[in-house]
């Protein structure tokens, strides 16, 4: 494990497990270990100066997001970047859930929701954008909160829970920002504002259309990022 990993001083209200999770998340999102690299619980614990228990708990949490993978008898390893096909599948699933949920939310929207959504958009607009995860963490937390608020606001608990299961994969999706920071913040902020504007007039069809436009744009930008990084290049033939 890289010497760059250090356990930050935990606020009094934050548990050791949360601090360890935050440290490991930052390390992984900043490319501290290559995709496929094994992760030793004991080694990570030594580097962080903690017992293996909070490290194990952190890795279990990260497994649910797809950032790490666990194989029987082999332990944990860093997951690979999402492929083009996986990005397409993830965005297809988000389109099905989020467009429907935002249309439901428009039927029952209250001023408190609009205030909270607008606050998350403002946080996105002013948050640092990179290049390290520590820099753009606040941006992505605000982005995540925006989508969680909307999916809960639809009032269908089963659909909201389905989004939460899908939402876990977003950390892995965001590895596309590796070394770049957030490159599409201004576009994303404008797209979020358009969704809120449609909700403000309680137009479910317009809200769903604006969400679809946003998610399709996110898909397009993610695939463009992969191509620009050379991740879609055909492997060279073996000599």
Automatic annotation (TrEMBL):
A Pfam family this chain is assigned to: GntR
Record GO terms (molecular function): DNA binding; DNA-binding transcription factor activity
HTH gntR-type domain ranges (all copies): 14-81
UniProt keyword annotation of Methyltransferase present: no
Keywords of the record: DNA-binding, Transcription, Transcription regulation
SUPFAM superfamilies: GntR ligand-binding domain-like (SSF48008), Winged helix' DNA-binding domain (SSF46785)
Protein name: DNA-binding GntR family transcriptional regulator
């Amino acid at each position: 494990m890289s010497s760059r990993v250090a356990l930050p001083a935990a606020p009094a209200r934050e548990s050791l497990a949360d601090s360890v999770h935050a440290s490991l998340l930052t390390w992984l999102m900043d490319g501290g270990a290559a995709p496929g690299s094994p992760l030793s619980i004991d080694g990570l614990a030594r580097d962080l100066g903690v017992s293996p228990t909070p490290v194990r708990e952190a890795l279990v949490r990260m497994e649910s997001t797809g950032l790490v993978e666990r194989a029987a008898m082999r332990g944990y390893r860093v997951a690979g970047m999402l492929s083009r096909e996986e990005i397409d599948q993830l965005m297809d699933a988000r389109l099905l859930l989020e467009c429907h949920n935002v249309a439901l939310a428009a039927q029952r929207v209250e001023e408190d929701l609009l205030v909270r959504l607008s606050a998350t958009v403002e946080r996105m607009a002013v948050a640092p954008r990179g290049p390290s995860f520590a820099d753009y963490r606040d941006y992505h937390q605000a982005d995540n909160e925006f989508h969680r608020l909307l999916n809960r606001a639809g009032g269908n608990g089963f659909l909201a829970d389905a989004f939460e299961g899908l939402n876990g994969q977003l950390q892995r999706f965001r590895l596309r920002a590796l070394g770049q920071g957030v490159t599409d913040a201004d576009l994303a902020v404008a797209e979020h504002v358009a969704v809120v504007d449609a909700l403000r007039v309680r137009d479910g069809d317009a809200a769903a259309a604006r969400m679809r436009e946003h998610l399709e744009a996110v898909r397009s930008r993610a695939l463009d990022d992969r191509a620009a990084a050379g991740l879609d290049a055909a492997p060279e033939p073996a000599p």
